[in-house]
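call fold(seq) -> tokens
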Amino acid sequence: MVALRDVETAAKQGATELLVCSRGILTPSARDLIQRSGLVLRKAEKPAAVCNGCSGCSGCKTEHPASAPPPATNSELERLFHSPEAEAIKAEIVNVGRKLWQRMYVDGNGGNISYRLGPNAVICTPTLISKADLRPEDLCLVDINGNQLLGPKARTSEILLHLEIYKAVPEAKAAVHCHPPHATAYAITDRVPPTCVIPECEVFIGQVALAPYETPGTQKFAETVLPFVKKHNTVLLANHGIICWADTVTHAEWYAEVLDTYCWTLMLATQLGAPISYIPPEKASALLDLKKRLGLPDARHDMKECQLCDMPDMPGAIAMAPSSCAALTGTATGEDVEAIVKGVTDAVMAALSQRK
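ret:
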């Protein structure tokens, strides 16, 4: 099978012709790019001696790894993409897209949604379409590496972010990326909301991580969430928005709602002029137990009771600096601890010197 990425590579290398096996299959996006780039497509009259990944030729002499499933033919992909299960998923994606737009979690053509239909098949939203106008027939099918297999429109460039989550977290079946304003306000100030304030947020979201900024749509951007997604189902994306994963598209959208409403509520609470009241640690542990029974991830599952709640030092503060990746994974080194101690000591000494 010749996919979009194969054609892009050939064009970048200055190729003028593309030779494929006699029974080779082109994905729709690959065929479109061939036409746009002016490449000449030629099919070999008999099986080529060397195959560069084409699965359409029964006489291919290249030995593919035994562990890798044979790539699906176009007819198999069509049957999968239009199966009753896939059609139900498409309808759910369209409905969730409309909800995101109605709640003003996306604007313009922003945001993207996906669902892992199989080990190597992911349904996703296309690029340059408002989620309010999305239709089932607009959706795309891509493989786990981002190559578009089916769909009339080009897939979202940010599907790479979703795919990295699917590769890292076997439990993840669906992902929603959007830009809810209150949660994004935290993301653009390099802060995360504290824990132990509202039970619903504790159970469904819990401790929120903040991934560093990279240019959206790139592989580097996709990989920014990897240190966090195994212990978090919701991650703030610096200067961008959020990504949520779950077992269904609807549940992933729920997590976006829960987080944004939580951030909004915290902001409103500060206007009352009173400090925020926190759930006691011993009560928070009961919520964590419930969360574990539900099979939901949380970076605090192995923490002691006294470590469960984030409480900002400043009275009335509603945001905290995010924990480092090392702190979240429990891999802080002696050098990290020494640097923290030195920083605190230097700050104390500087404050004392100002008093003299």
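Confidence is low (pLDDT under 50) at residues 46-68, 325-333.
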